[in-house]
Design goal:
This protein has 220 residues and is an alpha+beta fold. It has one domain: Pseudouridine synthase (2-Layer Sandwich). Strand 1 and strand 2 form a beta hairpin.
Length: 220
């Protein structure tokens, strides 16, 4: 557990754990919500989502009033969300991705209404690893980036970096299978390389989750 007070509880969600029951994973019996409610002996209300494959800070409200207040803060963009991601290629040193996204990422985009989506990023490190994925090049390039989604659309980071032509490594939906497999073999870990590192809440509260040991080769 990362944080506990009268209104909020935050945990460091491991990759592979659902936040709450979902029709997309109807067979999955264990969720972060169910496990934490059992541990605390009370009903909790999820305040935001993390994809099943994403690790890091996950926040729940302990009361209906807290859920309303912090839910409104998330909706208004008053809660800072900071992620780390490994992406294919070397994007610019910093930038913003301002690209509207289809409302439902599980459905074909054609014909769907699009909603505003804005993501800010900063490149932290560049890697050139000595294995071939593209037949034209003897090595392959990747980058560690810090990402701040300024809106809260589903799969926003993953879809925005696909749009930028620098998809997240390990993303089986929006990424590149050949790169996913090559990096998994190189690092010895198969996962979506996306970690919710820090939340910054109104009033100055900051909740952070350290990266797991598999991130060590990327952090230096």
């Amino acid at each position: 557990m990362l944080h506990l007070d009268t209104d909020l509880v935050a945990i460091d969600k491991p990759a592979g754990l659902l936040v709450h029951p979902s029709r997309l994973d109807a067979h999955e019996a264990h969720t972060a919500l169910e496990m934490l409610e059992r541990q605390l002996g009370e009903r909790l209300l999820p305040l935001h989502r993390l994809d099943k494959a994403t690790s890091g800070v996950l926040l729940f409200a302990r009361t209906a009033q807290a859920a309303r207040e912090y839910g409104q803060a998330f909706e208004a963009g008053r809660i800072g969300k900071h992620y780390l991601a490994l992406v294919r290629g070397w994007p610019p040193e910093a930038g913003e991705i301002d690209y509207p996204l289809a409302r439902d990422p599980e459905q074909p985009s054609a014909g769907q209404p699009r909603v505003d989506a804005l993501t800010r990023y900063r490149r932290l490190r560049c890697f050139e690893w000595p294995f071939r994925v593209d037949g034209r090049h003897a090595s392959s390039r990747y980058s560690l980036v810090e990402v701040e989604p300024l809106t809260g659309r589903r799969h926003q980071i993953r879809r925005h970096f696909k749009y930028l032509a620098h998809p997240l490594v390990g993303d089986t939906t929006h990424g590149k299978g050949a790169h996913n497999r090559a990096v998994a073999q190189w690092l010895g870990v198969s996962r979506l390389w996306l970690h919710a590192a820090r939340l910054e809440l109104p009033g100055g509260l900051r909740i952070a989750a350290a990266c797991g040991p598999e991130w060590a080769p990327l952090l230096g």
